[in-house]
Amino acid sequence: MHKSNEVLKAIQGRRAVMQNSFTQEEVSKEDIQTILEAANAAPTHKRTQPWRFVIFRKGGLERLGSELARIYKNSTPAEKYSEMAEQNMAKKATMSNVAIAIVVNYTGDVPEWEELAATSCAVENLWLAAHSLGIGGYWSTPGLIQHLGDFLKLEDSQKCIGLFYLGHHNSEPRTPARSPLEDKIRWEE
Ligand SMILES: Cc1cc2nc3c(=O)[nH]c(=O)nc-3n(C[C@H](O)[C@H](O)[C@H](O)COP(=O)(O)O)c2cc1C
Predict the structure, then answer these.
(1) Pocket of ligand 1, candidates 72, 138, 161: which has the most ligand atoms within 8 Å of its Cβ, to mutate?
(2) Is the CB of 12 under 6 A from ligand 1?
(3) What residue owns the CA closest to ligand 1's atom 14?
(4) Domains contained in the chain, CATH given
């Protein structure tokens, strides 16, 4: 029997929760702040703390949705374009209660992959903190995020690596689909 505690339960219970499970209940600014403080507690080499976040709520979500739809329309070849996909792109934002643009700030003080790794640690912290507060969400990485730089007012040394959509939700707990740990480890004793 494995040991268990609140942290381990949160890690095992965290799931990707999508917009179709989000409810209308508002995510409070206080909870968003708690979630972001958890992200800000992530480990980081040379304390570069490369994670940056842009938080969209209310009218901000409408603007983000319109921008995603606009980028989709402009960057999708005519033969692949569909009006439905354009609308769905906007809906990802407008059906969420909060969207957080995840940005890496490359300092040049450590290799770029370390900044990316540290920011990913921050995202997992964010995800676990949200889950612990009963808030669901997921990290969304459509190709068009590479075109969000101007909209997000990013500097040349910054890159958006995703949008984290959040909302209260009515999804049931699910067991994670994972191949066995045994296939991924080797003991040397
Ligand atoms: C770097 C990264 C990028 C992801 N991008 C997407 C995405 O673009 N769309 C999506 O639906 N889920 C995305 N996810 C969420 C995964 O689909 C989800 O975590 C995975 O299916 C495992 O499910 P679980 O998180 O519930 O255990 C991403 C997750 C990570 C870590």
Answers:
(1) 138
(2) no
(3) 139
(4) 17-56+98-171 (3.40.109.10)
29: number of Cβ within 10 Å: 11
Q: How far apart are CA 138 and CA 14, in angstroms?
A: 10
Bridge partners of 49, per DSSP, are none
Task: Supply the pLDDT for residue 22.
Answer: 98
Over residues 36-87, the pLDDT tens digits come to 999 999 999 999 999 999 999 999 999 999 999 999 999 999 999 999 999 9
Q: Whose CA is nearest to atom 16 of ligand 1?
A: 16
The CA 188 to ligand 1 mean position distance, Å, reads 32
Q: Is the CB of 138 under 6 A from ligand 1?
A: yes
Q: Is the pLDDT of residue 146 over 80?
A: yes
DSSP calls for 97-131: SEEEEEEEE--SSS-HHHHHHHHHHHHHHHHHHHH
Handedness of CA 25, 28, 34, 38 (dihedral sign): positive
Encode pLDDT of 174-187 as tens digits: 998 899 999 999 99
Our answer on whether the CB atom of 151 is closer than 6 Å to any ligand 1 atom is no
Residue 1, pLDDT above cutoff 80:
no
